[in-house]
Amino acid sequence: MKRHLLSAADLDRDDALLVLDTAEEMRQLADRPIKKLPALRGRTVVNLFFEDSTRTRISFEAAAKRLSADVINFSAKGSSVSKGESLKDTALTLEAMGADGVVIRHSGSGAPHRLANSGWIRGCVINAGDGTHEHPTQALLDAFTMRRHLGELDGRRVTIVGDVLHSRVARSNVLLLATLGAQVTLVAPPTLLPVGVETWPCETSYELDGPLPKSDAVMMLRVQQERMNAAFFPTQREYSRRYGLDARRMGTLPGHAIVMHPGPMNRGMEISATVADSARSVIVEQVANGVSVRMAVLYLLLGGSEPALSATGEPAVATASAPESVPA
Amino acid sequence: MQMPARTSGGPSIGQAGSTVMDARDVSRALTRIAHEILERNKGAADLLLLGIPTRGVPLARRIAAKIAAVEGFEVSVGSLDVTMYRDDLPLRPARPLEPTDIPAGGIDDRVVVLVDDVLYSGRTIRAAMDAIGDLGRPRAVQLAVLVDRGHRELPIRADFVGKNLPTSPMETVRVHLDEVDGDDAVLIESPAVASGAGGRSERDTR
Asked: In the prediction, which pLDDT does A219 show?
């Protein structure tokens, strides 16, 4: 059967390293006069975006085009979805058009899983972010960026700070980094840590100043106001003082440590402008690496007669959270 | 994860297959190729040796060392992975990529000598020429192989050949190199043995 990339937990250590090594080769392409490889010639990749995105959609589009695939972009705005078309009918339309790969972003956790396992389409499904569940290619590009700066990740300490509750990036990163042997510490106010976080393969802390001096990488998460339906912290000012990364806190990091952010940033909220623009910040590099990593994923899933990744995409519903039901 | 079928090495193969070149034969052949490259190109200026992974890369390095010993200066060596240019890419499971390493200065206006271990169908070399086309425009592209076993499926021939080895398509030619396999040798295996041992079939056998 076809395989999919739905969760960072789908990747075992060998798979994850294969993606990262392949991305390393793909990255060389950026320095070449002709930024194009013929690997996916004649294949069709559909970007199915039910939720707003700048970085991820452009990144997947660039990745697919650099591999010579045909790309169809679909965004829910301006499509029949706004007339009430269901995910199923949209999927059947894509199948009729012969999509070999479907990159899906959806506000409903579990939508990619539904798409992959309902028999609606035959192509590979790649999760580009579903609700508050997972965003595996973001975790891969974060790991790729860390690996370039820090070497192999075994035993490295990564601190992920902020709105963990609503963050699919945090979930995927915890799973992938644990697979790669890194030690992850999640830092957030108690209200922004999900129920069941104690079962995740990581440590947690309610304060930021303790873990920072031991961190090899610190990843600031965006405070996702649009997903917040209650008061999770008293004021933005208080949040920023307790959990924001400013120049003083950055000074307590070890000399080699890097500062990351999956974007988009709220400057002045979780990260100060000074930090975001400092030499330690690899935020712009993360975006560039995203294209290489997505090329690697697309190549490994779609490049041959069958995928090179052993991931099955079978009910690997991550330990992190149970997907909510998605209306078919 | 699927790794390409690699030769496993080991004594059992030596017993089963027949050795057609030993370490000294390989060394002599490479020395001759090095001299022929110099003769043909009237020196080593602008020369760039690109090995095709896996075993083309150490071969390219060895030829470069021999050229350097004659000419007295270093010759550029790189590696060129052709996996994504192969015409059978969609027919087989996706394969891991091998390193591509083009020396600084690129390939424009240089004489590129492709180096591979076995020349068989010629499809690898076609893929390599497509890959080169995306990297730049060399002044010339030449081909050096340790073994030419015949059975071409494309109009491609080698400029420098270590040994012409008439084979049956049923047979498997294995090249062992010290850097990869721990010893230097070229072996021919008969069908019965080859099917049992897996064979060096990842690239040109088809």
From this structure: 97
